[in-house]
Specification:
This protein has 373 residues and is α/β, with parallel strands linked by helices. Helices cover 39% and strands 27% of the residues. Bound molecules: zinc ion (ZN).
Length: 373
């Protein structure tokens, strides 16, 4: 392992009042990166005395009796990420407090290069209570994720502890000439998809939506503007509560709704706005089971007024489909195909800046199944 100047940080818990500490914990953690320039973190969702929140953290954990620090970090990364790593160097030590649980942590940070990934060995608690999963992110996306998660007290403590370490790791990798870290393609659509899937898993599991809906995120987005991670075109049906289906909150999804999730001119214009001005990396068209607009189109029944025009559009979309399920899928496919009529959307796809996907939401199970893209 190389020797480099190390950081030493002593942090206080500014979120909860200090009373006493009943133990100091020796902890090992790592900034893990791979040959393609991606970084690996764990994401946990918790709903306990710290609050209801989704968090990002480096992989790591407590040093066990008889282990030295290097043995401990090797074991932890194997268990949590399934990663076999090369220890590049020590980054330093951050001492911090969690007053709510009377804990003082001494975190020893390492920089590790992943050699290969295999099976993880998570504990039952990590799976069931914390929904622990791996996050693979570019450096910029990781910084953004820490900043976003700093909307809760625990998220702020974690960002205070880890962002200086992540920035130091990034600087070390620059000194080492690890070009991949600085050239990794903006694979943000991958992250968007991952966030949608993870959010839907949480929703299906019955977990309370941990997304931010409070004054702090309202103020932040009012001052800084919106940076949604995807645009979603979906049906107006009240049984499709989009933000809950994906466990997201203020400023995360740009949502366009109409009966039957058809790509009307105004829906297409709204998607164009999200792509051209908000630079969303992903557009998802979300159909659903039991769609009334599709059923109306299938039935052949004529509707008066503007509704008649909308049903006619759905009827054209579903073509010769016979069953409700076939028709819902055909309607989805038509709406996704209609996105291609926009030059701005086509160009964004061709430049690799935009991914378009289609999915069906099951209103009974809560499951989102990706069908297109
Ligand atoms: Zn519908």
């Amino acid at each position: 392992m190389l020797k480099r100047p190390e950081i030493r940080l002593g942090l206080r818990d500014t979120e909860w009042p200090f009373t006493y500490t009943d133990h100091d914990r020796q902890i090992v953690r790592a900034i893990v990166y791979d040959a393609d320039g991606y970084f690996y973190f764990v994401r946990a969702h918790r709903n306990d005395e710290f609050g209801n929140a989704t968090l990002i953290e480096t992989s790591g954990g407590g040093v066990e009796p008889g282990e030295d620090l290097q043995q401990a970090i090797t074991r932890e990364l194997g268990e949590e990420l399934g990663a076999e790593v090369e220890l590049v160097c020590s980054i330093g030590v951050v001492s911090d407090y969690y007053n709510l649980i009377h804990r003082h942590n001494i975190n020893h940070y390492y920089l590790c290069r992943a050699k290969r990934f295999g099976q993880k060995h998570l504990t039952q608690d990590e799976i069931e209570d914390f929904h622990l999963s791996t996050l693979r992110l570019r450096y910029e996306d990781a910084v953004r994720e820490y900043e976003h998660r700093a909307c809760t007290p625990l998220g702020r403590l974690l960002a205070n502890r880890e962002l200086p370490v992540l920035r130091r790791a990034h600087a070390i990798l620059r000194e080492m000439g690890e070009h991949a870290v600085f050239e990794a393609a903006p694979g943000s659509a991958e992250l968007s998809l991952e966030k949608l899937l993870h959010g839907n898993e949480l929703y299906k599991s019955g977990a309370q939506n941990p997304a931010y809906l409070d004054e702090r995120i309202r103020m932040k987005t009012a001052e800084e503007g919106q940076t949604p991670f995807a645009a979603v075109v979906c049906c107006a049906d009240s049984r499709v509560p989009v933000e809950h289906v994906f466990s997201v909150g203020v400023g995360e999804l740009f949502v366009i709704r109409n009966a039957g999730n058809v790509m009307s001119r105004s829906a297409l214009a709204s998607v164009e706005y999200a792509v051209a001005h908000l630079h969303v990396p992903m557009v998802l068209v979300l159909g659903h089971r039991g769609c009334g607009a599709v059923a109306a189109a299938l039935s052949g029944h004529e509707e008066p007024g503007a509704l008649g025009e909308l049903v006619a559009q759905v009827r054209a979309n579903i073509g010769t489909a016979k069953t409700a399920e076939e028709a819902e899928l055909a309607n989805l496919q038509s709406s996704v195909a209609a996105l291609q009529e926009s030059a701005c959307i086509r160009q964004a796809i061709e430049k690799g800046e935009l991914t378009v996907a289609g999915a069906i939401y099951d209103i009974a199970s809560g499951e989102v199944s990706f069908e297109i893209g």
